[in-house]
Amino acid sequence: MTTTTTGTDTLTRDALAVLQPGFAGTTAPDWVRRRLGEGLASVALFGRNVVDAEQVAALTAALRAERDDLLVAIDEESGDVTRLEVRTGSSFPGNHALGAVDDVELTRDVAAELGRRLAACGVNLNWAPSADVNANPDNPVIGVRSFGADTGLVARHTAAYVEGLQSTGVAACTKHFPGHGDTSVDSHHAIPHIDLDTATLHERELQPFRAAIAAGTRAVMSAHIRVPVLDPDRPATLSGRILTDLLRGELGYEGLIVTDGMEMQAISGTYGLEHGVVLAIAAGADAICVGGGLCDEDTVLSLRNALVGAVRSGELAEERLADAAARVRALADWTSRVRQSAPPSAGAHPEIGLTAARRAVTVTRTRPTAPVSAPVYVATFTPAANIAVGDETPWGVGAELERLLPGSVSGRFSGPDAGAEALKAADGRRVVAVVRDEHRHPWMRTALDTLLGAAPDTVVVEMGVPQSPPRGALHIATYGAARVCGIAAAEAIVAG
Description:
The chain contains 18 helices and 14 strands.
């Protein structure tokens, strides 16, 4: 394994090594190439860096021409959170759909196929899976990213996902430690508080992480959440009590600890980006995720300088920074060794995602209704997307129903008059109403009331967490809004 470094000292190289920055564009920028020569050991890919799989493979190859032991990270949960297929929708259902099927072998196989595709693109660290227990159905940021609300189910599927993904040489990064499921605030915007007792923390939130550690997860991502029973003062990402005492000490975890995105307001808006990064490394984090928003060379240099300055001032122990950098390099070495023994093409199962999505679909008939065999009007009720999901990725069932039932038409609606607007647009055609987390959006519930009151034969497709009681002549739950979930739902509608 060869790594080229130019005239930078050990401290500076270590400071660069702990950063996992993003960058703009679909080719390797010159500044990233230069910093790789000076010690930068990781980069992160986001949707803005992706055109297609071939382009990503060329991009990562160009980066590895500068440093062959490079960690290339991506936030590819699949399902609603996809970067590799940001413009088309994912070929794999997300966690909630896999949890609904509750077949750990299927979850393992899905994760392995995803890993093969990532490895073929040159990606070797995936910020997934989410091990959060969906204890709060009103959670605005986790939802279908969780395997479910049952701790045992989440734990066994988290372990299976880790095993499947890592069998391909792609490191799993289990998140969001110590558990983001019982929050009502999105940490992209503020610091969520989780007020629970010690027993609930250990019996519910931590069990999936214990399972992931037992399964050998190579990385764990911290959450920007405050858990007063563990640390009343600092969020987990900046807490030595949580990262060092609990995760390293009590749970015995030895792998890489990665922070969630440090530009998120829970950190940058409270502690400042540079100071937050220093506090995170001091608390026990090893790798700094940055670049979802700030993706320029100046950001990387300011964080590098903040870490070097903190060591020189005595705020950060040089040994802690060196240990963090060593863990980053050790993970890169592991991915290389496993990748060589498991070529990306081995055991490929390209249709496993659609198979899983079809198995997840739940169909409920609430009243006798005629089969859907003629063109329909697809009314999609669109909530504001959270930052993790983003608003670039298409979702719904309209495109597939237009293919299966030629002549079908689609429209998107939101707000207090959405139901009446959809009825007017339908103009007498049978309606397929598509919702996402109806239970969290009163306007969406009102829209369905309006539709069903005027057109009782309306078909309802829930592509979020199916928390509300099924309604509509035919109710279809997909447990996620991935592209394959839309295909599976449309097939179910036509099948009746």
